Amino acid sequence: MKYKEIKVSIPKEFAEEFSSLLEEWQVAGFYEILFDREEPRKSGEAIISDNTPIRVYLAEDDSASEAKIWVYLKAKAPEDSFAESRWIETKEYEEAYKEFYKPFSIGVFWVVPTWEKESWEQAKTNPAEGVPIYINPGLAFGTGHHETTRLVLSRLGSLEIPGKKVVDIGAGSGILSVAASKLGASEILAVDIDPNAVRSSLFNRDENGIPETKLRVEEGGFDHPLVVEGRFDLCIANITFAVLRANMDKIAALNTDHFLFSGVITERKAEFLELLSHIVGGGLLFETSWNGWELVEWKRGAA
Fold first, then answer.
1. Does pTM top 0.85 for this prediction?
2. Alpha-carbon span 207 to 186, nearest angstrom
3. Does residue 2 surpass a pLDDT of 90?
4. Residue 149 annotated in ligand binding
């Protein structure tokens, strides 16, 4: 079977909307990468670009999604976007992301691809150097590279996680759930509406030696019965602003007082904080940003 790979470079302000559309169009897969410069640099352009590189993968017969991608790029950023496509075989589709994914540290963690797990464990002898998280993201969101994931990982290391019950909504690859487990959370529930993400989370849970009694992975979202009925010490939601806004009433109904939100761009932060204040109640505990993305730690009962 063949797949169409489309290499897209799009201005950062359109990346969230474009990713949401890719999900809506149900493409075979897509992911964001860092530090990629395959498209030609425009005259006078800075070395560090404001564009977001995204790889999109389409099934062989999905010409409709390809047409939508080209129309979107021409309509939104005709001068500032770049795209090219090629046919690849199934093996290339499954292995494509490995070229761009190497071990890196963030906060108290080292994020290590599963195909380097054995060599990493043999070479790393000092536990104080960092907590390893072994991840094979496949095509699920959550390689650890994206700013939103890095923001949550950085903050988790500063929280009192041991013994806590955590729910991770929009778990993607499961990287944040695995991180919570490595920090000593007693129970974690990870949910995602994408079945590919569920499979990825299950695989990564097992690669990190975490029992299913400690980290449970389910297909679903804010309305999953285990999410609705459960009581949690912390809710992690690394999801786009549009999804958070659409589910604000469900967020308010969750049986938790402590939230970590990421996936909100800086331009939407004020609106998001106002929604939290009016619908969820409580106050801001901590906030930080990275390259135009926001992390919001929120707690009910805080003023």
1. no
2. 18
3. no
4. yes
